[in-house]
């Protein structure tokens, strides 16, 4: 009997009563509903066809402006992405153009596939009917849906992690550890070119399967070595070809808080708790504390159940990410670079919820469902939000279209989200600037102020600048859509008031090369 089937073969009173209340048909319908809802949310977001937002735009400009060979080296705009992901996107760009629907097709395909694969993984790890809970939480996770519909590698990271974990636990029962490791090795050898953190997931699985593969035989040791060498060689090639070239001092500084600070050892426990809670909350926004406690319970149960492989396979990627953060090689926190950890986090949390339910049900009856019910309610909230109100992070495409119809040849343009605007405006236009000039140095009689925003609070950050402009110029035109704004000013011909000078800040990070870019930590 395979060790991986422990939750189905040894109930240990976990979930048996819940399973008894659900017929096989009902369980199948609920599981299908979770999968369809997850795919529906992704398709709805994709069909909304929002403009590129800041981080996307930075990578899109690299994909558009660099050859395939150049994408293997250093990227512009402080970007880093796996080489094969970039080459695949470059190929899509050459074949189908640079539209949002075209360039987002690869991440969307990976997002949909990850939901389907996670359903298989959850059945193998969490058991029925708790796999339904895990699939609902994964399929309807706000951040997973968001990363599915953007031209970034984070959704691909999540897909790769799910695929490797599924192969690690065994896509079908009674598959030997050696065969599982061979499958993981074959896929990981290629996957590290598409997803940098794939090597962390592989390392966790490989170490977990080490005792079972090697045993006490020389042949087992040879098989283990043979399975690890291709992945190591492949990642070393990626390291030499792209990772070193893309290493950037700004990025290192940007993610500094996500690395272990050995200069202040007393702060490490607090850092670890904060980062782990942040990770839990990223996998299930608004449910971080519940997920964190459930994760701990799940890990404890796996260890106490005496399963040598399962704790390492499921929780191991999190441990590897912490070690990478300690070595200052990969950030560990609740942010986009940790998207690949969403699957193990939610699997562990589901196991913890299963244990907590059976433990609490003995004493408080139906109230034992409260933690699980809360998780499902949060997932339902996000699904409704994504289906009814597509997420907005800025929408400059309509703004650029309006500008093309109304701009004069002698007008100036101040685009504070310069990279987003550059995706929709001809390159090299000398009229476009990313920073507002002082009042007495604006070289145009008429100028447009361009701004993108995810919500009204961000929109109102522009109010002080608009009020400042109205002291020496008259507003002549305004175009606003959901996520984008263009305001035309015409100077009134009078002298600039004394002391007016520099314009007010509008919440942009002027330290980012390229001008006018917001620093959105953790988004």
Core attributes:
5-stranded mixed beta sheet; 523 residues; disordered N terminus; 24 helices; disordered C terminus; 6% strand; 59% helix; mainly alpha
Account of the protein in words:
With 523 residues, this protein is mainly α. 59% of the residues lie in helices and 6% in strands. The radius of gyration is 26 Å and the shape is globular. The protein starts with 5 loop residues before the first helix and ends in a 32-residue tail after the last strand. The model is unreliable at 1-17 and 508-523 (pLDDT under 50).
Low-confidence stretches: 1-17, 508-523
The protein's oligomeric status is single chain
The total beta strand count reads: 5
Tell me the β content: 5-15%
Helical fraction equals: 55-70%
Query: What about the largest sheet?
Result: 5 strands, mixed
Ends distance: 44 Å
If strands are numbered along the chain, what order do they take across the biggest sheet? 2-1-3-5-4
> Total domains, how many?
2
The arrangement of helices and strands along the chain is HHHHHHHHHHHHHHHHHHHHHEHEEHHEE
Gyration radius from CA atoms, angstroms: 26 Å
Q: What structural class do the secondary elements suggest? A: mainly alpha
General form: globular
Summarize the helices and strands and which ones pair or pack:
Blueprint: H1 6-9, H2 16-20, H3 24-48, H4 54-65, H5 68-71, H6 83-96, H7 100-103, H8 105-125, H9 130-139, H10 142-148, H11 154-169, H12 177-191, H13 198-214, H14 218-246, H15 249-254, H16 268-283, H17 288-304, H18 310-326, H19 342-364, H20 370-388, H21 397-406, E1 412-415, H22 418-422, E2 432-433, E3 446-452, H23 456-459, H24 463-469, E4 473-481, E5 484-491
Parallel strand pairs: 1-2, 1-3
Antiparallel strand pairs: 3-5, 4-5
Helix pairs in contact: 3-8, 3-9, 3-20, 8-9, 8-10, 8-11, 9-19, 9-20, 10-11, 11-12, 11-13, 12-13, 12-14, 13-14, 13-18, 16-17, 16-19, 17-19, 18-19
């Amino acid at each position: 009997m395979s060790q991986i089937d422990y939750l189905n073969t040894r109930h240990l009173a976990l979930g048996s009563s819940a399973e008894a209340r659900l017929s096989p048909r009902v369980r199948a319908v609920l599981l299908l509903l979770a999968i369809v809802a997850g795919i529906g949310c992704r398709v709805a977001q994709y069909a909304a066809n929002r403009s590129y937002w800041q981080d996307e735009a930075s990578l899109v400009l690299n994909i558009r402006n660099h050859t395939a060979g150049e994408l293997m080296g250093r990227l512009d705009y402080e970007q880093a992405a796996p080489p094969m992901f970039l080459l695949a996107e470059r190929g899509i760009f050459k074949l189908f153009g640079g539209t949002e629907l075209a360039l987002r097709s690869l991440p969307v395909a990976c997002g949909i596939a990850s939901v389907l694969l996670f359903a298989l993984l959850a059945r193998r790890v969490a058991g029925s009917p708790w796999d339904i809970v895990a699939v609902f939480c994964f399929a309807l996770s706000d951040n997973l849906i968001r990363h599915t519909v953007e031209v970034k590698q984070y959704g691909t990271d999540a897909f790769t992690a799910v695929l490797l974990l599924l192969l690690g636990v065994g896509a079908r029962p009674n598959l030997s550890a050696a065969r599982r490791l061979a499958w993981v090795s074959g896929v990981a050898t290629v996957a590290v070119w598409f997803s940098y953190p794939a090597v962390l997931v592989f390392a966790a699985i490989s170490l977990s399967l080490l005792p079972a593969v090697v045993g006490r035989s020389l042949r087992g040791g040879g098989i283990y070595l043979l399975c690890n060498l291709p992945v190591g060689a492949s990642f070393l090639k990626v390291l030499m070809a792209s990772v070193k070239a893309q290493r950037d001092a700004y990025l290192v500084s940007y993610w500094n808080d996500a690395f272990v600070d050995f200069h202040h050892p007393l702060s490490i426990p607090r850092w670890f708790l904060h980062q782990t809670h942040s990770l839990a909350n990223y996998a299930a926004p608004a449910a971080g504390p519940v997920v964190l406690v459930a994760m701990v319970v799940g890990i404890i149960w796996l260890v106490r159940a005496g399963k040598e492989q399962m704790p390492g396979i499921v929780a191991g990627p999190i441990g590897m990410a912490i070690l990478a953060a300690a070595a200052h090689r990969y950030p560990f926190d609740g942010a986009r670079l940790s998207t690949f950890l969403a699957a193990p986090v939610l699997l562990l949390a589901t196991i913890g919820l299963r244990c907590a339910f059976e433990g609490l049900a003995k004493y408080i009856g139906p109230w034992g469902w409260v933690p699980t019910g809360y998780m499902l309610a949060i997932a339902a909230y996000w699904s409704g939000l994504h289906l009814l109100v597509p997420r907005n992070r800025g929408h400059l495409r309509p703004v650029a279209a309006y500008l093309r119809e109304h701009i004069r040849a002698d007008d100036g343009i101040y685009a504070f989200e310069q990279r987003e605007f550059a995706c929709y405006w001809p390159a090299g236009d000398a009229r476009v600037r990313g920073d507002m000039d002082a009042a007495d140095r604006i070289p145009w009689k008429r100028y447009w102020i361009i701004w993108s925003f995810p919500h009204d609070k961000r929109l109102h950050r522009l109010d002080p600048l608009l009020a400042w402009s109205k002291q020496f110029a008259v507003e002549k035109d305004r175009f606003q859509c959901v996520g984008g704004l263009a305001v035309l000013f015409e100077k009134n011909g009078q002298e600039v008031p004394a002391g007016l000078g520099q314009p007010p800040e509008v919440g942009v990070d002027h330290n980012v090369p390229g001008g006018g870019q917001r620093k959105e930590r953790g988004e």
